[in-house]
Design goal:
about 220 residues, Four Helix Bundle (Hemerythrin (Met), subunit A), mainly alpha, 11 helices, elongated, Arc Repressor Mutant, subunit A, 2 domains
């Protein structure tokens, strides 16, 4: 796997975390790595697409903090464009990841996180019961991300963030069946209430029931 990385990615990974100096300009880097400028430019473009570097005028190339999300977004977006059914397959993966890490995640939540979850529940119901009714998509996304944020696992975070980007791409964020939405948020409410009472098995079972809704949603 490592042998398949480009020379630029190997160079980028080898830089020390404490190295605050910017990455040299392409001409200098080309000479340093003994790569022709055109090939190096392509390698930098790949790194940029993966979210590993930023390239800005007058600033140059800078390494970014590692995130698993950009690479997943690129690959998953392509897969969904090729076949819409790939979203359902990825959704199933996300469901299993959330289930597998649920106890570990929610048992790490701190009181401030519980309050954040409760606020999201309140905001969501405010949108659903307001006039006009609004779809609480951002609250839906934030609720699921917050539940897992204390895991401090960039790969789980990446899987979840890429899921919600895909969720928007297939326009489930504009799904407007009111009965379905109220049922979803009833589940969310009960999950958070159970977490607050430290009834983690109960909360997990409610989560599992909740995840079945997307497959059964009316079209």
């Amino acid at each position: 796997m490592i042998n398949k990385l480009s020379d630029f990615l190997k160079y980028l990974a080898a830089r020390k975390k404490s190295d605050k100096e910017g990455i040299p300009a392409l001409d200098q880097l080309s000479a340093e790595l003994d790569i022709n400028r055109a090939a190096l430019r392509e390698q930098v473009a790949v790194a940029r697409a993966l979210g590993l570097v930023s390239v800005k005028p007058r600033v140059g190339i800078q390494r970014l903090a590692y995130s698993f999300t950009p690479a997943l977004q690129q690959s998953l977006g392509y897969a969904i464009l090729r076949d819409r059914a790939n979203f359902e397959k990825y959704s199933d993966l996300r469901t299993h990841v959330e289930s597998a890490y649920f106890h570990q995640a929610v048992e790490k939540l701190e009181p401030v996180d519980i309050e954040e979850l409760k606020e999201l529940i309140e905001e969501a119901w405010g949108k659903l019961r307001g006039t006009p009714t609004k779809i609480p998509h951002q609250e839906h996304r934030d609720l699921h991300i917050v539940m897992y944020k204390r895991l401090d696992n960039i790969f789980i975070t990446g899987i979840l963030e890429a899921y919600w980007e895909a969720y928007e791409a297939v326009e489930l964020n504009v799904f407007t069946d009111y009965n379905y939405l109220t049922e979803v948020w009833d589940y969310h409410t009960r999950i958070v209430e159970a977490i607050e009472r430290k009834k983690y098995d109960e909360a997990h079972q409610i989560l599992l029931n909740h995840t079945k809704l997307i497959a059964a949603r009316p079209h």
